[in-house]
Write the structure tokens for this entry.
Amino acid sequence: MDFSDVSTVIKTWIDAELDHKMLLYNGDPLVSVLQDFNQPCYLMDANPTAENIAKIIYEYAYSQSLKVSEVRLWETPNSFASYMK
């Protein structure tokens, strides 16, 4: 599969679902407060660590029938978290 096709699918989803949103564990006490103020949130079933964010990106890619083997989420130029099954 052409990388630009993969990038388009994943980037479109990330831009729509994660970008410019507060990523929170769905049990966080701030969820209701932020929702009351119509703040954009993305709720996760686990704490929003880099590893867990990489996992949800992996799971989305897999759900789109992409043959993904690993997702790396770069936090800095020298630090990343990865998820693979």
In short: Residues 3-17 form the longest helix (15 residues). The longest strand covers residues 71-76. The helical segments are 3-17, 30-36, 50-63.
